[in-house]
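Objective 1b: paired records.
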Amino acid sequence: MARITVVGGTGLIGGKVMARLRSAGHEARAASPSTGVDLVTGEGLDDALAGSSVVIDVSKPRTYDPDAVSRHFDRAARNLAGAETRAGVIHHVALSAVGTERVPQSIPFYRAKAHGEAILRDSGVPFSIVRATQFFEFGAQIGAQARTGGTDDARVADAEVQPIAGDDVAAVLAGLADEAPSGGAAEIAGPDIMPLADFVSRCLAATGDGRTVVADPGALYFGAVIERDELLPGDDAWIAPTRLGEWLA
């Protein structure tokens, strides 16, 4: 079985990927700040990747400040590419977001992510990119951070989403460790399209937060106003099996 390094392997999705890889018999190790790895400076990367043939990158910055996000994805992509080349990595699996290639100029996070993808494509390291829709796990967080309208409500972007369970994302990423690099990007999404307001409302209710969630055309999504369908995948997306109601239950 392969030795695999999961960059961001101690986080939400990374932990799920690690568990699946180990269950499949792979030697998996996490690379994250808590294990002594700093993607922005490159500290610890060479040791973390030594002997690994596959790298699964699910890392993200700790803040959504536009400047910090831009710096993170630029430096992380360059440092990872260099360390992977030195280690002889034969497959880089990258987790990205649906819409990254379509709306990078409007959403700072997506713009920075697209820049990091471009660095990966030009690095010479064989790769596969997985673009996922919003995770079930972040629905309540979106609501918690939503601005209020002066009443007891939460206002979110007037957009549609097709959210996906983190476990389903992890299953796809872990499965790619045993496949050849695609050299391209594929989209994955949950089975149901719904208004962002409905998604957030259901997630908040499950945590005991009874605020009303309102779709506001002027509300920002990751720092930008978006069109209603910009977060939806294309017709060729792989559809995951887990429904939001099942996950909430």
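Objective 1b, second protein:
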Amino acid sequence: MLAGELYDATDPLLVQERLRARALTHQLNVTRYGDPSAYREILSALLPNASADLAIEPPFYCDYGYNIYTGEKVFFNFNCVLLDVMPIRIGSNVMFGPNVQIYTATHPVDALERRKGPEFAKPISIGGDCWIGGSAVISPGVTIGDRCIVGAGAVVTKDVPADTIVVGNPAKPIVRKDA
């Protein structure tokens, strides 16, 4: 799975690890405002490779948790979904709007192969000082450079060079009028 090869998502170990993440995300989502120290403890268990100052507004969902790596001062707004079958690397000072979805998981293009059930994944990297607008979708294998803005509702299917603003479906660069 972590090598980017086809894998069986029903493997008992993977199912167990996803169930663990589901239990932790549930605890995180119901604990956020009731007990700040418990929230931090759950966050550390769920996302051991994230910065200690990571901030998440619940609800939040992920597949495994341990494949999410963040720099400092990363913020996820409400209802974000990260399918972290492979690593998701996020730089420092990154903000995610509500409903952002980040998918490393994907499936074979060939229908007969897809019917057999194997899956695969591609890692995602998001540079520092980025702003990912609400309801944006980041597709498997995408790299977003430093200081980028992904507009609300954008579907990012290709790499985004540093210092670029992308909008639309599929996401395309725009020229800033104030530059």
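The two ends are 43 Å apart (CA to CA). Residues 12-174 form a domain with the UDP N-Acetylglucosamine Acyltransferase; domain 1 fold (CATH 2.160.10.10).
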